[in-house]
Write a structure and sequence with these properties.
Length: about 100
């Protein structure tokens, strides 16, 4: 009887390939998790900058004083002072970040 040679992978070869993929994934997952955490921090900082900008826009026509807002989940403190005659300095700050506008 003639032996027919089939093309394909044996079970052992498939198990070895899966083992290599498992080892690679164990090495890569902590790095991917770290990248995701850094990305989340960057997104939070961007949201905070937009919150500061929005707080300044809201207070362009306000009188001198201090105001507090909750914008995008951030507690933003706004201070409006006289900069020079006819000009106001608007300062918005939140968690160590600040934004100023002289108008």
């Amino acid at each position: 009887m003639k032996k027919i040679k089939t093309k394909g992978f044996t079970l052992i070869e498939c198990i070895i390939a899966l083992g290599f993929m498992a080892i690679l994934s164990l090495i890569l997952l902590p790095s991917l998790n770290n990248i995701n955490r850094i990305n989340q921090k960057s997104e939070d900082k961007i949201r905070m900058i937009y919150a500061l900008e929005e707080a300044i826009e809201k207070n362009k026509n306000q009188d001198l004083g201090e105001y507090s807002y909750n914008i995008n989940g951030f507690g933003v403190e706004v201070s409006i002072e006289e900069y020079s005659p006819g000009l106001k300095k608007i300062t918005a700050s939140c968690e160590g970040f600040g934004l100023e506008l002289v108008r």
